Amino acid sequence: MSDPVKSRSALGHRGLEARARSLSAAISFVLTAGLLAGCGSVFGDSKPEMVTNDQPSTIYGKAEGLINAGDYEEAARQYEEVDINHPYSQEARKSIVMAAYSYYKAGQYDSAVSAADRYLTLHPGTKESDLAQNIIGMSYYDQALDPKRDQTYARRSLAAYKTLLQRYPNSRYAQEATNRMLILRDLLAANEMQIGRYYLRKNNFLAAINRFRSVVSNYQTTEQVEEALMRLTEAYMALGIVNEAQTAAAVLGHNFPDSKWYKHAYGLLGKRGLEPQQHEGSWITRAWNGDGEA
After folding, report:
1. What contacts 193, CB < 8 A, 6 or more positions away?
2. Residue 191, SS3 per DSSP
């Protein structure tokens, strides 16, 4: 006769094994479903794009048509398709810079800069290099036109245009770059003046002087420099640093004798019985002569 305890034990083991197999199958199903769901999250709601068999010239032509139609975002995608699927074709090199241009026209400035940088890295010195450099300058420039904003974009645009003029002085984009650099310098100077005036109102004269000093040292060709020299006269007089105040007023009067700001500076000194006088040891003299910070 069989042992009922052993029989029940055997049945229990078989039951546990069956439950384990069921549980394992369930876990496998959940993991598989999760993996599929994960794939869906990677690709979004759309399926991954299939590689096209179109010739690079065909894709490139399609991209040109999209640009003419004003569909810049799709044009950029088509240009990138040429570069990705046909990297050794004649159209591949130019497709990179045209993708950058299309992204710029679509207002996708980060993508435009990235594509233009890639072109310059892979194809320096080629005939579209100045276009790529100009796209970088334009992408930052379009984001910079507000003196109340952080001026990171203005500085980046100015640097990009400087590079354009240094590397490609005969470029068809050189004149536009020169004009925009004047605007950018004035924008940066205006920003420094805005901050400097704020510090001056708060009687934080040293902080104000640092801002006005930046304008005199770095942005002498801008309209802001006249006021900067007058404000330096004002701030240095408030601190009792007479030599620097006199020098700021003297440089202002020598270079802009008809300026309303010179009249203000002259009046400030006159209240103390002083006159403008340029001191050779002043940083203002050195900066204005090009011997200091430039």
Report:
1. 211, 212, 215, 224, 227, 228, 231
2. helix
Which CATH superfamily groups domain 56-172? Answer: Tetratricopeptide repeat domain (1.25.40.10)
Place of tokens 């992204």: 103
Give exposure, 143-166, as e/b (b: 16+ Cβ within 10 Å). Answer: bbeebeeebebbebbbebbeebbe
Burial of 6 (0-12, 13-18, 19+ CB in 10 A): exposed
Q: Specify the DSSP element, H or E, that contains 95.
A: helix 90-105
What angle in degrees, to the nearest 10, is found between the helix axes of 72-85 and 90-105? 150
At 193-232, the pLDDT tens digits run 999 999 999 999 999 999 999 999 999 999 999 999 999 9
Tens digits of per-residue pLDDT, 114-162?
A: 999 999 999 999 999 999 999 999 999 999 976 566 799 999 999 999 9
Tokens read off for 90: 């004649």
Identical fold at 56-172 and 192-288?
A: yes
Contact (Cβ atoms closer than 8 angstroms) between residue 189 and residue 219: yes
Global confidence as pTM: 0.75
